[in-house]
Specification:
Number of strands: 0
Number of domains: 1
Helix content: over 70%
Largest sheet: none
Number of helices: 8
Radius of gyration: 20 Å
Strand content: under 5%
Distance between the termini: 47 Å
Length: 222
């Protein structure tokens, strides 16, 4: 088994730098573990019929659980991509960054249970509101991570350009806004539109906003 980077002995490295590497490594390991467990728990909620004779029967009996898995995986994947990208650009992990990350992971760990209650048990009123609220809180914490890392002095590496920081803060802001809108929508309409709206959110975050920043670099430099 390969040795963790934070435990490697590097000549001429001072103690503070070694501690910073170790803290970052441990936080990344914890984050990846929680993201992996959350997506696995979501997959375990898929209930396939034992004696199905056609794909139509599989969908009729398991459509809700399959939909719950797809939505849960997509949302958790978006949080993981944001976590991966921000950790790759950090210079240090201080107490504020650690606290924001742990709080977001606390919410991410609850997402599979929320999806199970919503799509499997069929509790579509208060449970949907709780589901949307958990997503909005996780999104707000992710936004806090990007905002703090991007603009707190010395947290993010100096080489990371300001336009990129502004782009990622804007991208992170789409998640809490999106789920807060769903929180205030009628439950039946929001539930039916959830999967296509998630697809629109992914396109907005990964395609539309980055494309806008590439076309308007002078605006983001201001």
């Amino acid at each position: 088994m390969a040795e963790l980077e934070s435990l490697e002995v590097k000549p001429d490295e001072d103690l503070n730098h070694h501690i910073n590497r170790h803290i970052l490594d441990r936080l990344v390991m914890l984050s990846d573990g929680i993201f992996a467990i959350s997506t696995t728990l979501a997959a375990l909620e898929i209930k396939l019929p034992e004696h199905a004779t056609s794909l139509r029967q599989v969908w009729d009996e398991s459509g809700y659980s399959l939909t719950a898995y797809v939505i849960t995986f997509l949302v958790i994947a978006m949080f993981w991509v944001g976590s991966r990208d921000i950790f790759a650009r950090l210079h240090i992990v201080d107490r504020v960054m650690t606290g924001l990350t742990l709080a977001m992971l606390c919410g991410v760990a609850v997402i599979p249970a929320c999806a199970h209650a919503l799509f499997i048990r069929g509790d579509t009123n208060v449970v949907f509101d709780f589901y949307a609220l958990v997503m909005a809180v996780c999104g707000a914490l992710n936004l806090g991570m990007w905002g703090y890392a991007s603009y707190a002095p010395g947290v993010m590496r100096q080489e990371v350009p300001q336009p990129y920081r502004a782009e990622r803060v804007l991208v992170a802001a789409t998640m809490p806004i999106f789920f807060l809108v769903l929180f205030f929508m009628p439950t039946k309409g929001a539930l039916g539109a959830l999967l296509p709206l998630i697809a629109v959110l992914v396109l907005l975050r990964r395609v539309a906003i980055p494309a806008w920043f590439r076309r308007n670099p002078q605006k983001t430099e201001a």
